[in-house]
Amino acid sequence: MRNAIVKYTVAGLCIVLGYQMCMDILSSLKSWIRIYIEKRMEKDVNTIYSIKKKIGSGKTAIIYQAERLSDGKEVCIKVLFAYDPILTRSNAFCNERDILAKCHHPNIIRCYCTRKTTLCRIIELEYSPNGSLYDFIQCHGCLSEIQAIQMLKQLFDALLFLYEDHMIVHRDIKPENILVFRNSFPHSDLLSEYTEFLRSENSIIYKLCDFGFSGSNHALCDYTRPDVYVGEADHTLQSDLWSLGIVCYFALFMRNPYLEWTRTKDKSLFLDNCCVEKQTQIEEYWLGEDS
């Protein structure tokens, strides 16, 4: 009896170890394939652009700061693998290309052109030296109240333009999908310090980007409205405005108030808890401010 128990225990351990080994091999293989494809894509891209640096990457795309070989213009290129199954199913490249081609607005990223190569689909966009709103806040700290108001005004105008003029809902509003640009004003000794302060506070332009999932339900993130997150409702203009409100909170306090609920495995907890403000938390906040 004891020998049988030992035998089955050893067999079970071997199965577990074998499974873990297989998973590790698959993970390493997947990582190697990703690196290989990325290198091949860069080789394709280098026939048109000089890549300066990799800015970031997502589920379906890699973002580079680059320079056109033809005229030396600095641009941002979004490179997508042509045979990515997620890209094929979501039609992300065509969605973004078509939306940016017809939606011209001061607070929507400008698309210069799109290109196709053997392996890649490339979207050429205007380059933002300040990066995304997330990058900007990590570097410079929280926005001031005046800056947050300006951000809301600009992005609300862009969302209304998308919905009222083109019946488009963004579906993926988050700090990483908002780019920051700065207007430069010439300094003058005649201007008061207060006027200079107002100029600096109003010199930022915010632009929406990443429209690849605007025609799908793939873009569920930490800034999604609760009923959309749990699958009880579809994305609408109202859900975009909810996300914009959470983005504004993040810009002012550098945190997402509902992050812990969006990361839980039980999605119903998010719906049950995120809209219920606890009186004790509110009182503690204001008491802390007074002290």
TrEMBL record:
Q: GO CC terms for this protein?
A: cytoplasm
What Pfam families does the record point to? Pkinase
Protein kinase domain spans which residues?
Answer: 49-291
Source taxon at top rank? Eukaryota
Q: Name one GO biological process term.
A: regulation of autophagy
Q: What is a GO molecular function of this protein?
A: ATP binding
Family annotation (PANTHER family)? SERINE/THREONINE-PROTEIN KINASE UNC-51-RELATED
Its protein name is: Protein kinase domain-containing protein
Q: What does the organism's lineage look like at the top? A: Eukaryota, Sar, Stramenopiles, Bigyra, Opalozoa
